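Q: What does the assembled structure look like for these inputs?
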Amino acid sequence: MTPLLSVDGLTLKTGEKTLVSDLSFSLGAGERMGLIGESGSGKSLTAMAVTGLLPKSIVPTGSIMLDGQQVVGTPERALNGLRGSSVAVVFQEPLTALDPLMKIGRQVAGPLARRLAREGRSPSRREMERDVLQFLDHVALPQPERIANSYPHEISGGQRQRVAIAMALACRPKLLIADEPTTALDVTTQAEILKLLDGLVRELGMALLFISHDLPVVATVVDRVTVLRNGRAVEEGPVRTVFDQPRHDYTKTLVDAARAFDNALEGTA
Amino acid sequence: MTLIDMRDVSFGYSRQRQVLHGVSLTVRKGVSVGLVGESGSGKTTLLRLLLGLARPTSGSISFDGEKLDISSRGFMRGYRRSVQAVFQDPYSSLDPRQKVRDIICEPLQSLRIPGFHGEAVAAALDAVGLPADAANRYPHEFSGGQRQRIAIARAIVARPQLVLADEAVSALDLSTRIRIVELFKRLSQTMTLVFVSHDLGVVASLCEEIVILERGQIVESGNTRAILDAPKHPYTQKLLQSVPRMPA
Amino acid sequence: MTAMDETTPLPAAPRRSRWSLALTVGLILVGIHVAVALLTLFWTPYDPSATAGGRLEPPSLAHWVGTDRLGRDFFTLIMIGSRIALTVGAGAVAIGAVIGVTIGLLAAFATRLLDDALAATLDILIAFPVLLLAMLVVAASEGASLWSAILALGIAMSAIVARLTRILAKRILQNDYITASRTSGTSWPGVVVRHVLPNIWPTLSVNFALQFGIAVIAESSLSYLGLGAPPPNASWGRLLQEAQGTVYTAPIGAIAPGIALVTLVIGVNLLADGLRDIGDPTRRVSR
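A:
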C-alpha cells in the first residue's frame, strides 16, 4: 500500500546555503511520526515543504508525494486542492495563526465550509453555526457559544490553540502536521492539548506528523521518530528504541539531556 | 543569613486587577530558590517587585535587613549592585547596536563600580564559557544559547549576591538548555539564585527550595526534594502530573 | 564533546563591506555643493551684486552660465544658492529634529492620557500643509527673510519627526534590553542616550534626509512665491521665479538652478542611505 506521505531525497536550498539535505521518510495512513530537531535543524521547513508553502527564496529538489500528488515543482493551483483535504497544519503560535480581526466562529467556519463544499454540500447558516459549535465542543472548549462570539485576543493561549486544532480538524485532513503546537503553552495546558490531539487523531484515523524539540512531549504522541540535525536525518526508528538505545552521538546528547531533567524531577539524579 | 524577606506583599493594577495576594517568602544566602508558576500566577510581577521595578501596593520587601526604597537613588544603586537579572528572550535582551563589551560593561558604568572594567568584562566572559574575542562582536553574530551567556555575563559582572533569572532557559533548545542550566549550577556556588520558571525539571535541577505560585498566591513552598516527592497541594500535584516524561 | 560545540562563536562570515555605491555618489554630490558653499564665503568668480556683463547673456567663457536680467553673473548666483540651500536644509532639519525628537520622546514616556493628547495634537499639525504653515510663520515674523523661512519649515516639520520618534521609541521601550539596562542601574536619561536614541537613529536619519530635500524645495517654493530673500542672496527658488518671464528666450535661467537643486537633493538622500548602512552592525561581521 502506498504511504500517505513519501519524502524522498528532499533538499532545500536558499542561494548558496543548504537548509535541508537529502531527507527521506514516509508515513502511512493513520501512522504517527515525530520529527525531532532543534533550531536550525530544518524541521519546520520540512513541514512547509510538505504543504507546498515554502517561501520563494527556498528551492526544493527531490520528491514529496502527498496523497498521490507530487508537491515539489507543482504549481500553486494544484497544491491548493491538497491543503485542507489531504493535509492541515497546527502551528506553534496560536496568536498569529488566527486572524485578530475575525470572530472565532467565523474563522472555524471557513475551513469547515470549504470541506463541506468539497463534499458537495452547502449547508444553511444555521447548520454551519451548529457544526462550528460542535467542533468547538469537540476540542473541549468550555462555553462554545461564548467562544464562537469572541475575538482571538479575548481568549487564552490554550483556548486559541484548541481553536487552531478545531480549524485543522474541520478540514478532515488525512494528515495533520503539528509544528511545536504546545511549546508556547503552560505545562498544564500542554498536557491537556497533547491528550486532546492524541485522542482526536486516533478517533478520526488521521496520520500525524508531530514536530518538536521536546523529547518527552514527542514520545507521548507518536510511535516513530526521525531526528534531524542541521538539515540531515541522523537517526530514526521506533520511539522506544531510539530513546533507549540511541545510536548517533547527537541523539545521545538530546536523550541524556531529557533524562537529566527527568532524573532531577524524580530525585534520581 | 537572609537576603530577601518578603512579608505579606500584594500588588494590583487596580481594585479589580489584583495580581499578588499576600505573598511572603524568604531567600537565604546560598540557598537557591525556584519560583514555579504558570501564566497568570503572578511570578512575573513578583520578579518585577524583587527587581525594584515596581512598588508593592501593600506589604514590605527587605534586602539584607533594609527595606527596599525604590525612590532613593543611592539605595537603588547599592541594591542593584547586589541584585541582578537574566531575562527570558535572548533576542530581545541585548541591544543590537552595542558591542558585547559595552553590553556587559553597562552595570559597571551605571553603578559607578571602580576598577578596570576591561578585566571585569574578560572575567565575566570567561566565567560563562565565551572566548575573549566575543567582546568585540555584536549580538546578531551569536546563537540563542550564546546570547543568553552574554546576558548572564552582564548579570554577574558586578559580582552581585543575588541573581534573578526569569525563565532564562525557556526559549532555548534542549541541548542548549541543559548546558545553560549547568552554567547556572556552577554560578550558584558563588551567588544565590532565584529562578523563575514554569518548568519543574529545570527548577528541580537547580534549586534547593521551591515556591509554587497559583493565581497570585503561594500554594506550597519548602524543600524541593520533599515537595516533589510528596506534593500536598492539588495544584502542585497537577503540575507534577502534567510534566511529560521520557518513556521508562 | 560533539562537533557542535556551542561555546565558540560562529565563524566570521565573509566580510561584506558596509561601503556602498550610494555612499560614494552621495558624498561626491553633497561634497561638491558643500565645497562650493564654503568657497562662496571667501571668493566668488564675480561680485554677486555687480553688473558684470550684458543682460541675459547666454553661456560663454566669461560667464559659464550667462547672466541674469540685471547682468549679474549667473554662475555666481547659483553658487551662492548652494550656500543658502545647505543652510536652509540643515537649519530646518536641525530645528525640526530638536523640537520633534524631544516631543516624541516625551510622548513615548508619557502616561496614557498625556500621550494620547500629544498624539492627537501632532496629527492635527501634520494635517496642515507644510507650506501653509511656513507661510503663516513667515507672515507672522514680519517680512520674508531666510531665517524666518528656516524657522517656519523647522517647526512645520517637527510634528512629523515627533510622531515618528514617538512610535519608534515606544517600540524600542518594549524590548528586554531596556529593562536590563534599568536593572543594571542606568537612569532613564541614560537609557535614552545609550539605547533609545541609537536604535531610533537609523530610521530617523533617513527621514531627516528626506526632509532636507523637502525643506530645500519648500524654501524654493516660498521664494518662488516671493516670500524669500531677493538676489544676490537669492535661493535657487527665487532664481527660478525670476527666470519665469524669460524661460523661452533664456532657458538656462531655469535649467541651471533646477539641476543644482536636483543634484543636491539626490545627493543628500544617497548620502543618508549610505551613512545608515555604514552604521548598521548587522550588515557586517566584525574583524
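Chain A has a mean pLDDT of 89.
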